[in-house]
Write a structure and sequence with these properties.
Layout (H helix, E strand, L loop, with lengths): L1 H27 L3 H30 L9 H19 L16 H5 L5 E4 L10 H9 L5 E3 L9 H18 L5 E6 L1 H13 L4 E7 L15 H5 L5 H10 L7 E6 L17 E5 L6 H4 L1 H12 L2
Parallel strand pairs: 1-2, 1-3, 3-4, 4-5, 5-6
Length: 304
Amino acid sequence: MAGAFWHAMLMAELAVAAAIAWPVNALIGGSFWALLALWLGAFVLLQPLLVLLAFTLSRAAARGAPGPLRARTVLVESIALLTAAFVMSTHRPGRMPHRGTPLSDAHTARTRRPPVLLVHGILCNGAIWGPLRRRLAAEGFDRVGVMDLEPLFADIEAHAVTVEQRLRAMQADSGGAPVVIVAHSMGGLVARAALRLIGPGVIGRIVTLGTPHHGTAIACRVPLVPTRQMCPNSLWLRQLNDEQEGALGVPVTTLYSREDTLVAPARSAELAGARVVPVDGLGHLGLAVSPRVLERVLEELRRD
């Protein structure tokens, strides 16, 4: 379903770009190749406009000044947005199996890298994790699972049940080794909800990227079940934080960008009891694909 969303978005952007390029080319009397260049140029320029729009709307919803958003951040996020849109639009949903073979005993489990489960955020799918999967494989993490959270706009608790089942299966296939979760955006809340269901022991560590642990104001403007849950001070979010903040039960690291284009205020991603790592120069999607963020994720995973 997320793939269909991104496919439709790309088609809409290409149509808008064509609507801009056609009259401009007619006005200047350009050739077919000039039309093609104008069309592609307009399409590329739409990306920073979308990034700026998202940033402005998220800050306006939080009733705060837009704040600084550097040109470099806009460029990096635009590239991340365009790349993610193409990759996710071609992805087919379904369970993406983790690599590796069942381990025979706990000793073997202790001598290998821990199993890792990657959980994406709202409006995304497992394809967003391509860069991190390649980095994990190069680092020797051979038991990596990727979730596709379906249906797209389901309750976060429903997603947590699906993640819980996957975690138990991965732990069983890994000789009882606790599973590390790396999650982006809403996926971090899904991971914490799964922790509430399953408790420590199955989950060894959680690393969240741009997760609105205290909600984001723009979510209040979208009338969907999971966005309402991510609205600041929603009953669901208050209950989750009342139960877990300062008493998480497992090591948690939360990485967030001060220039996040969707989470506002950005410090909503901070969480009491967690290791908090702020970064600069990245938007919301950029957090899931930035090489320096992925290197920090690997640092956290090496702790296990």
